[in-house]
Design brief:
Blueprint (H helix, E strand, L loop, with lengths): L22 H4 L12 H8 L9 H5 L6 H9 L3 H9 L5 H7 L6 H4 L11 H9 L2 H4 L12 E5 L3 H12 L3 E5 L8 H4 L8 H13 L3 E3 L10 H6 L5 E3 L8 H9 L1 H4 L22 H8 L3 H4 L10 E2 L4
Parallel strand pairs: 1-2, 1-4, 2-3
Antiparallel strand pairs: 4-5
Length: about 325
Amino acid sequence: MPEVKKYRPNIGAPRTAPNEEPAAERACDFRPVDTGFTKEDAIAEANRCLDCKKPLCMQGCPVGVNIPGFIAKIREEDWGGALETIKGDNLLPSVCGRVCPQENQCEGKCILGRKGEAVAIGQLERMVGDMAEEVGRAPVCKPRNGKKVAIVGSGPSGIACAGELAREGFDVTVFEAFFTGGGVLTYGIPEFRLPKKIVKREIDGLEQLGVKFEYNSVAGRLFDAEELFNEEGFDASTSPWALACPASSRSRARTCPACTAPTSTSRAPTSCTPTTSPSTTPRSVRARTSSSSAAATWPWTPRAPLCAWAPTA
């Protein structure tokens, strides 16, 4: 029987430095400052990990990614396995590896950081996520359960919610007011920090899971909760952008039973019904006539957040 070598971390090695573009060159355009780790950089950094029995880094991760697990796969040069390990908890590794505040979360809890420099977990996650086209395989989804869910807004929380629901077997449709998805990932973060092609690739990955995106669709102007449930056949809806609504709407969102207890399928969406009267024009017709002005009008509609579960029959 071959002898199994015990892993010994390279504790004395310094933290692998990021590969940054020369300042004189990057000052002339908006390309990313950091070009990311190479495979050699990633393996060297993975060998610094202590492989703790009680990994505090996982406690610092909001979604509980199996950090020691995917770092071990990197050491073995099993890039596909590393990606699958990450996507078991987080379907957006390329985004989170770039914009998450790792210094306050996973890396902030790293034992190595107490007396030296923490493992570059964010760089490793980003590098593995960027290899999705090369080694990636679509996450395994549960069989379809026949339930339809509408998500209003394709920002970070919207697409994260869509991915998790699709993986659980739900039929998910995301309604976005603008002509492309991503929300603040697309419109709020500059290109040198988060390239637009990365956001598009993550959204394309969600479409491979069966998530449907309807752009130029303004909630409250083209449809309301009643139409989604009674005409479109949705069983549930959620609006991750409730914090962007007026203060009065945010107040209703906090007190609405359907928003505070979304797991209950017996609550009617009465307190979430928009104050504007629903149009009698079919939504498909309204979409064709209103899509040109969708992006200009979305911040003022709907009057109340569209977040409710449909009543059961």
